Amino acid sequence: MPLTIRDLPKEKYVLPGNAACPGCPETMGLRYVGMALGHRAILVIPAGCTSILQGLMPGNGLSFPIINVAFASADAVASGVAAAKRLLGEDAVAVVWAGDGGTADIGFATLSGAAERDEDVIHICVDNEAYMNTGIQRSSQTPLGAWTTTTWRGKREPKKNMPLIMISHGIPYVATASIAYPIDFIEKLRKATSIRGFKYIHLHAPCPTGWRFDPSETVEIARLAIETGLWVLFEAERGRVTISPFSRPYADRSRRKPIVEYLKRQGRFREVTDELVRELEREVDEYWGLLLKLSEQKVQ
Ligand SMILES: Cc1ncc(C[n+]2csc(CCOP(=O)(O)OP(=O)(O)O)c2C)c(N)n1
Ligand code: SF4
Ligand SMILES: [Mg+2]
């Protein structure tokens, strides 16, 4: 039986009154982590919006057990948590919850090291496509053309492809997810707990504050990323890719919404040109072509 919203536990791990902005995608993602893993999750969190919104003792905004760490140590600390849990026979899941900066840039060395050692850890990259906590600076996950406070005229480089980089580490499980599709994310998290070794999940997380859209539109913007084919939901088990059901229709290019529908809803793409749209379309086609080759799936 497929999982439905009614099957999910009611216990709350994200508490009211926390310091997140309205419409924050990180609190949404954490809520789903709570639903998927419950009290088994031990979160290792480097600096970022989550470490701020969790608050200071005794005013906690999150009720997970959390270890706050320096960027460069997150996956090394989680490797230690995994070893302790094995030695003590605890039924716990070592989870790194890190932003795109903490994952793809500042924390990448220990992420790559822990993946190469195949530590029994789940690394979740909550990707809001910039360093939001310190004032919306660009990261390697900021897409081509996007405004940030360090790319005033739009970023000139494309988004670094982290899921493909993690697949090439040869780890047992890589998946992409979106805060607009909670059941898909929860199922992937639960599957990850059943697999021994290093698991990487990249969660697309539109941020109203940094992307310049109304806080009531977070889920809509996240959904548009899927419907335009810009963000693709998939799983890769030992490198073999399966496109997830919500993304499957968009393997067919003609079913994708125009990319401009996604861009025009966000102030960070205010200066977008036709040339940029064409370049993004080219990137999307190329990425889909590669994923479909890896999946050996026929275009429907
Ligand atoms: C080694 C180091 N460099 C820089 C900082 C400052 N810093 C704190 S949070 C942050 C940005 C984090 O961005 P991201 O990981 O994307 O998380 P977000 O705030 O977007 O959730 C930076 C640069 C730091 N704490 N440590
Ligand atoms: S800046 Fe974005 S990610 Fe950070 S707390 Fe605000 S809405 Fe959430
Ligand atoms: Mg970020």
Query: Biggest sheet, open or closed, and with what strands and sense?
Result: 8 strands, mixed
Structural class by secondary-structure content: alpha/beta
Q: Determine the number of helices (DSSP H or I, runs of at least 4 residues).
A: 11
For the record, the CATH class is Alpha Beta
Strand order of the largest sheet: 2-1-3-4-6-5-7-8
CATH homologous group name: Thiamin diphosphate (ThDP)-binding fold, Pyr/PP domains
C-alpha-based Rg, rounded: 18 Å
CA(first)-CA(last) distance: 25 Å
Q: How many structural domains can be distinguished in the coordinates?
A: 1
Strand content: 5-15%
The third-level CATH topology is Rossmann fold
Uncertain residue segments: none
Average predicted confidence as pLDDT: 95
Structural notes for this entry:
The protein is an alpha/beta fold. 36% of the residues lie in helices and 14% in strands. It contains 11 helices and 8 strands. α1 crosses α7 and α3 (74-88) packs parallel to α5. The radius of gyration is 18 Å and the shape is globular. The two termini are 25 Å apart. The structure holds thiamine diphosphate, iron/sulfur cluster (SF4) and magnesium ion (MG). Iron/sulfur cluster is lined by residues 20-21, 24, 26, 49, 53, 128, 132, 207-210.
Topology summary:
Layout: H1 25-37, E1 41-46, H2 49-53, E2 66-69, H3 74-88, E3 93-99, H4 100-105, H5 108-116, E4 122-127, H6 162-167, E5 173-178, H7 182-193, E6 199-204, H8 208-211, H9 218-227, E7 234-237, E8 240-243, H10 259-263, H11 274-295
Parallel strand pairs: 1-2, 1-3, 3-4, 4-6, 5-6
Antiparallel strand pairs: 5-7, 7-8
Helix pairs in contact: 1-7, 3-5
This protein binds thiamine diphosphate, iron/sulfur cluster and magnesium ion (MG).
